[in-house]
Amino acid sequence: MPDSAYHRVLLKLSGEALLGERTYGIDPRVAEQIAQEIIDVRQLGVELAVVIGAGNIFRGLAASAKGMDRTTADNMGMLATVMNALALSDALERQGADTRVLTAIEMRTVAEPFIRRRAIRHLEKGRVVLFAAGTGNPYFTTDTAAALRAMEMRADIIMKATKVDGIFSADPMTDPTATRIDSLTHIEVLERRLNVMDATAISLCMDNKLPIVIFNLTKPGNVRRAVLGEPIGSMITV
């Protein structure tokens, strides 16, 4: 079995990752595929935590732009991330993985409250830990939640799974001349205003010297390849 490049990883998934061909909600088949990718990584002996967004169900910022109170909208978005975490947890458990969902908003009947030392203990016991409800505070994205939890867990890297093959000079979906940038620094991401993660998340990673790899989740096996340190996607380092 090949050696992984990292011991403890935080995987950041967008809510849209669970959509599949749908326009709303969760495609169980996609959840199962993602779960299998995660299990393949766990079998390498890697400790894995997951932060998942809620764009497939509810976007607080979009609702706020349409007139809803921002705090209320963000709270609704954080609750939607719990739904996604529970769905992914279920897919993982049905394939034999041991999981724990930890939420920043207390709801003891469905998930454990986030307690840092408990989360680390779950990772050490080989459980896949899914962090839900963002940071528990409005005005912060799940990107920032991923950066924060990665620091708290002392993760070696953040792996952000997207629908494209990394960071591009322009939107590859609309600009055929866009070229992929294989590596760059956190400050370059901020200076060039590249829409990789929000500025708060990038700044937090920069201050704590935490690398980030951006890669394409839609290609089977890419999570494993990223964990093995293969040159896929784009790498952000200090």
Could you explain the architecture of this structure?
The structure is a single chain. By secondary structure, this protein is an alpha/beta fold. It has a single domain, classed as Acetylglutamate kinase-like (Carbamate kinase), CATH 3.40.1160.10. It is 37% helix and 19% strand. It contains eight helices and eleven strands. The protein has helices spanning 28-42, 60-65, 70-94, 116-124, 142-153, 186-191, 199-207, 222-227, and strands at residues 8-13, 47-52, 99-103, 112-113, 128-132, 157-162, 167-168, 180-181, 183-185, 212-216, 234-237. The strands form two sheets. A nine-stranded mixed beta sheet has the order 4-3-5-2-1-6-10-11-9, with helices on both faces. The longest helix has 25 residues, at 70-94. It is globular and about 50 Å long. It starts with 7 loop residues before the first strand and ends with a strand. The model has no long low-confidence stretch (mean pLDDT 95).
**Strand tally:** 11
Mean pLDDT equals 95
General form: globular
> Which fold name corresponds to the CATH topology?
Carbamate kinase
Low-confidence stretches: none
Q: Can you count the helices?
A: 8
